[in-house]
Amino acid sequence: MPTTRPRYTLTDTGVIEEMLDVAQRRWPGVERKELLLRLTAAGRDAVAQELDRREGTERRERQRTAMRDVADLVDAEVLLSDAPWQ
Q1: In whole angstroms, how far apart are CA 69 and each of 59, 62, 63, 74, 79?
Q2: Which of 17, 28, 35, 74 has the most crowded Cβ, counting Cβ within 10 A?
Q3: CB–CB of 10/36 below 8 Å?
Q4: pLDDT digit string (tens) for 23-76?
């Protein structure tokens, strides 16, 4: 079928064969073409989890930094007084 999208050709040898053999142990009775799809989905899920963890860690660090910096940027005594409303 004609397409402008990239196509990939993989041969069931070497590293690909090893990966599919491991996948076959995980999902016995599944044909190797389906194993390849399951492996790519499992890889996607693992990468997504890693990214979520990293982004969560970075977000928490930004929050910690903001909480540390807020004391220098905001005078809580002034905020709690009537001064902001005058």
Answers
A1: 15, 10, 10, 9, 16
A2: 35
A3: yes
A4: 999 999 999 999 999 999 999 999 999 999 999 999 999 999 998 888 788 887
Give the separation between CA 9 and CA 65, rounded to whole angstroms: 47
Specify the DSSP element, H or E, that contains 38.
helix 32-73
Helix (H, G, I), strand (E, B) or coil at 7: coil
| pTM of the predicted structure, to 2 decimals | 0.65
Looking at residue 65, its amino acid is T
What amino acid occupies position 41? A
How far apart are alpha carbons 86 and 5 in whole angstroms?
A: 64
